[in-house]
Write a structure and sequence with these properties.
The complex is a heterodimer of chains A (about 110) and B (about 110). In chain A, about 0% of the residues lie in helices and about 55% in strands. By secondary structure, chain A is mainly beta. In chain A, strand 7 and strand 8 form a beta hairpin. With about 110 residues, chain B is mainly beta. The chains are: A mainly beta (about 110), B mainly beta (about 110).
Chain lengths: ~110, ~110
């Protein structure tokens, strides 16, 4: 069974304190790994797609990396506006009906 | 550009009542999806559509029906609401397979 596990469930950082979120997965034939950001009361907002091990993507203070078993979302010098829940999803062979979401990591950045 | 719009934003139903949630997208996307999000659980797919006039079951389809009569609209119906259907419902659209999903801002449904 395809599974996605995100850790930690919650993370509290001070402004400027860099850290990483983890997304470990088991899927037969990864077709893509997606990172989304979700603010309270809003729908998930797309951040990155990674397709193969070794791939990296960056956007402002965020950097996503991918290995054969897990992905990391690195947050460098975070600001309070980075506070959100970060969701990871993996796509198994097939269409997007095969997208499996993790439960998310709730990040809080204190000023 | 509105993107994906969901109506209503909030709704309270009594057990046994019916309702329809509307999702509209203005990006001319082929694929559309309905998810539910519950505390402590990931997003779970209810139903999806790969084009106008098509629908298919997802992971948790029981108690729901859908229709896609127009390409831009995807409707989710509850014929006889149950407390277990209390959740936040998200609609998403997608341009092509493997491209990112675009989500609406959700409908919070409470069934008493």
């Amino acid at each position: 069974e395809d599974q996605v596990t995100q850790s930690p469930e919650a993370l509290r950082l001070q402004e400027g304190e860099s850290s990483s979120l983890n997304c470990s997965y088991t899927v037969s034939g990864l077709r893509g790994l997606f990172w989304y950001r979700q603010d309270p009361g809003k729908g998930p907002e797309f951040l990155f797609t990674l397709y193969s091990a070794g791939e990296e993507k960056e956007k402002e203070r965020l950097k996503a990396t991918l290995t054969k078993k897990e992905s990391f979302l690195h947050i460098t010098a975070p600001k309070p506006e980075d506070s959100a829940t970060y969701l990871c999803a993996v796509q198994a062979p097939g269409g997007s009906e095969k997208l499996v979401f993790g439960k998310g990591t709730k990040l809080t950045v204190n000023p | 550009n509105a993107g994906v719009t969901q109506t209503p934003k909030f709704r309270v139903l009594k057990t046994g009542q019916s309702m329809t949630l509307l999702c509209a997208q203005d990006m001319n996307h082929e694929y559309m999806y309905w998810y539910r999000q519950d505390p402590g659980m990931g997003l779970r797919l209810i139903h999806y559509s790969v084009g106008e006039g098509t629908t298919a079951k997802g992971e948790v389809p029981d108690g729901y029906n859908v229709s896609r009569l127009k390409k831009q609209n995807f409707l989710l119906g509850l014929e006889s609401a149950a407390p277990s259907q209390t959740s936040v419902y998200f609609c998403a659209s997608q341009n092509q397979m493997r491209s990112p999903l675009h989500f609406g801002n959700g409908t919070r449904l409470t069934v008493t």
